């Protein structure tokens, strides 16, 4: 079982821009998610966050100027050193784990076939956390957690306070959202 670095946090605010990221550095959140970034900015952004006492979970697949292959994953782990790495890619998740960085496997659960192939993927990657998208399917959150025993973070299409509550009630440990109105829940 992973150490729950953010046991007191249920909302994981996701920054889509530099401005949002800088704003989040001045909030109460310990863990913040960096969605869109450019490879040239990463080192200074992580250093800024560390100085502000924040842990950054970096969406590896959304870094501009970086191909998400084995070398990119090594670079992120050894040079950039975020607290966590989120990715849909098996090699990125495995590399994060090897480097003792919190590994979050992002899953797009579009249909039953995607769900079944995700279970196979999870047997290989054994991530610390799973980010389930879209996060507005409480019964699927419950099923994935019961089947894997891996803590779930719900993300994607969560727009209302009630959807946050539904995801948490279904067993998610938290919700990622870029909607500022939900950051204060």
Automatic annotation (TrEMBL):
Which Gene3D superfamilies does the entry mention? Aldolase class I (3.20.20.70)
User: What does the UniProt function comment say about this protein?
Assistant: Regulates expression of the glpD operon. In the presence of glycerol 3-phosphate (G3P) causes antitermination of transcription of glpD at the inverted repeat of the leader region to enhance its transcription. Binds and stabilizes glpD leader mRNA.
> Keywords for this entry?
Glycerol metabolism, RNA-binding, Transcription, Transcription regulation
Highest taxon of the lineage: Bacteria
List the protein's name: Glycerol uptake operon antiterminator regulatory protein
Cited Pfam families: G3P_antiterm
What the entry lists under SUPFAM superfamilies is as follows: GlpP-like
Please give the InterPro entries that the UniProt record associates with this protein: Aldolase_TIM (IPR013785), GlpP (IPR006699)
**What is the organism field in this record?**
Halalkalibacter alkalisediminis
């Amino acid at each position: 079982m992973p150490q729950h670095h953010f046991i007191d946090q249920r909302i994981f605010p996701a920054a889509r821009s530099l401005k949002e990221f800088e704003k989040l550095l001045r909030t109460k959140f310990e863990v913040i998610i960096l969605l869109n970034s450019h490879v040239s900015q990463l080192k200074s952004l992580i250093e800024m966050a560390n100085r502000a006492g924040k842990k950054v979970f970096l969406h590896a697949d959304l870094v501009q100027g970086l191909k998400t292959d084995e070398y990119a994953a090594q670079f992120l782990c050894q040079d950039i050193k975020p607290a966590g790495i989120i990715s849909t890619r098996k090699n990125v998740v495995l590399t994060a784990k090897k480097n003792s960085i919190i590994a979050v496997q992002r899953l797009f659960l579009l249909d039953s076939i995607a769900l079944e192939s995700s279970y196979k993927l999870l047997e290989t990657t054994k991530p610390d956390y799973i980010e389930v998208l879209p996060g507005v399917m409480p019964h699927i959150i419950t099923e994935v957690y019961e089947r894997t025993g891996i803590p779930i973070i719900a993300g994607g299409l969560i727009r209302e306070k009630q959807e946050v509550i539904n995801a948490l009630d279904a067993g998610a440990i938290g919700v990622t959202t870029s909607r500022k109105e939900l950051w204060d829940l």
